[in-house]
Design brief:
The protein is an alpha+beta fold and 104 residues long. The protein is built from three helices and six strands, in the order ββαβββαβα. The protein has a single domain, classed as Ferrous iron transport protein A (FeoA) (SH3 type barrels), CATH 2.30.30.90.
């Protein structure tokens, strides 16, 4: 995945199969935000891309032990950063730094 060099973050739809990341934030509102949170897409959660569709219009992600498929447009609402060797748990300063990088 290619991440922003300043913030070391990108969006979920940019992940390739086999890559692991940590969720930083959701850029969604209303029903879709509630649905994503209910499915486990919460800041600090480790996520792995398992497979993508032929035209990359959808992908399957492993989140909290569950395999969940998302359309590209929904995955583009989830900001992530590559997982590091501290077990994928997101530290507070990482979330704070990502929030600084959010475009208004």
């Amino acid at each position: 995945m290619k991440c922003d060099s300043n913030c070391n973050s990108c969006y979920l739809h940019e992940m390739r199969p086999g890559e692991t990341a940590v969720i930083l934030s959701l850029n969604a509102e209303g029903g879709i935000r509630r649905r994503l949170i209910d499915l486990g897409f919460i800041g600090g959660t480790k996520i792995r891309c398992v497979l993508t569709g032929r035209r990359r219009e959808s992908a399957a992600y492993q989140v909290r032990g569950t395999l969940i498929a998302l359309r590209r447009e929904d995955a583009s609402l989830i900001r992530i950063r590559p997982a590091t060797d501290h077990g994928g748990e997101c530290r507070d300063e990482t979330v704070y730094k990502a929030a600084e990088c959010e475009k208004p």
